[in-house]
Task: inverse folding
């Protein structure tokens, strides 16, 4: 058999089945992704100082309550657009939110403040939901802390933008 014939035989017998298997495997993986936006239901976002999570937003109802700078509890209704929700879903996926542990607490931190900011973030889907309780004084994996803080910041920014749009 010639050199060219051997190369063609190698491609047909080894490389082609490998490529076909890769396409098959990854198409199933993408199709069965655990958190798909097409199955998205709602976001719950709560935050506050210490154990008090008085500031709350529920995307399903649009109810948003927060304490303003004068310590008054403000209750309003903010509906996030589908684009806003898709943006948050993608940001959470980008930060690896689905792989976070359920609790990122600063309990073992010797420099912990009693009134450090706490965040509760929950993404609800048809078949699954993922929630994370995040303490800003978390002293574990720094990349994990930064990613959780980024998700909380993105949600706060989107809520603020939606609130500004509603006022106009």
Result:
């Amino acid at each position: 058999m010639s050199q060219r014939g051997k190369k063609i035989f190698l491609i047909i017998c080894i490389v082609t089945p490998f490529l076909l298997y890769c396409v098959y495997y990854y198409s199933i993986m993408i199709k069965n992704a655990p958190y798909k936006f097409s199955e998205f239901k709602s976001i719950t976002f709560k935050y506050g100082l210490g154990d008090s999570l008085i500031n709350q937003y529920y995307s399903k109802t649009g109810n948003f309550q927060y304490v303003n700078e004068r310590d008054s509890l403000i209750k309003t209704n903010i509906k996030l657009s589908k684009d806003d929700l898709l943006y948050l879903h993608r940001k959470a996926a980008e930060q690896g939110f689905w792989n976070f542990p359920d609790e990122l607490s600063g309990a073992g931190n010797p420099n912990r403040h009693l009134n450090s900011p706490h965040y509760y973030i929950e993404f609800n889907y048809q078949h699954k939901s993922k929630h994370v309780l995040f303490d800003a004084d978390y002293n574990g994996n720094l990349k994990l802390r930064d990613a959780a803080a980024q998700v909380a910041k993105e949600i706060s920014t989107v809520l603020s933008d939606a609130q500004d749009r509603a006022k106009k």
User: Anything to note?
Assistant: The chain has two domains: 1-32, 37-167. Residues 1-32 form one domain. Residues 106 and 138 are 4 Å apart (CA to CA). Strands lie at 40-49, 55-58, 63-67, 73-77, 103-104, 117-125, 129-135.
